[in-house]
Structure formats: structure tokens, C-alpha cells
Amino acid sequence: MERMLPSGPTVDVAGTAYDFTTPRRIGKQAIDVAFTGLDRDADGRAWVRLEGSRRATRFWLDEAQPWLEVYTADQVPPAPHRRGIGVEPMTGPPNALGSGTDLIRPAPGASYIGGWGVLHG
pLDDT, tens digit, for every residue of 31-52? Predict the structure, then answer.
């Protein structure tokens, strides 16, 4: 990665530290990764479940967002870091304008509509 821009190919996360297809603790793992190839339910939604000791939050994104950024803010000064976690639906990967990867180019007058949501409890 150069200048915080992706510089390599998309990599399968199966079996890596970034494989969260089976629920597990994030723990102290730093994450600043864009995921794609997301598992989706019958309605085309991909889900993220964040669970703490007292509550859980579920986040969904539809097929209009094939990418998902997850960010733990471990590099943000000042300490303490990681007071939360960022989960961001994306229509393309970081630097899509530069790389052209999954870049959406609607025709004049056209629209592109997507949805996402957060459920607490």
C-alpha cells in the first residue's frame, strides 16, 4: 500500500486474520480493510454483527454496495484509540476513481440507488 492507496490485487481472506465468515472476537486486531465478495442472504443483504458485553448492533448493506470498509482506528492519535469501529458500505473499493475498479458511471439523467441499515438490540 502506497500513500494509503491499495496497490495490489484483491486477496481471498479465507483462513487469514481477516476472515470473519465465522463469528469471532476482533480482540486487539487492527483492521483497516475493504472487503468484497460478501456473503449475502436471500434478499441480497450482507450483514455485520458487532456484539459487546451488553448489546449487539447489526448492520446490513444491499447489493448496490459490493464493498464494505471496516476500520478499528488503531492509528488515530491521541490515545486511547478504538473507542468504536467503523463499518462503511461502499459502491467501489478505495481509490476506485483512480483504478476504475467497480466504478459506477451512470448515464446522464440516470440514478443509482442503494440501501443500508443499522439494527440495535
Answer: 999 999 999 999 999 999 998 8
- What is the spatial distance between Cα 107 and Cα 91, in angstroms, rounded to a whole number? 16
Listing from the earlier edge strand, what are the strands of the sheet with 46-51? Answer: 46-51, 56-61, 116-120
Contact 61, 45 (CB under 8 A): yes
CB atoms within 10 A of CB 120: 7
pTM of the model: 0.85
- Facing residues of 71 across strands? 32, 86
Cα–Cα dist 26/24, whole Å: 7
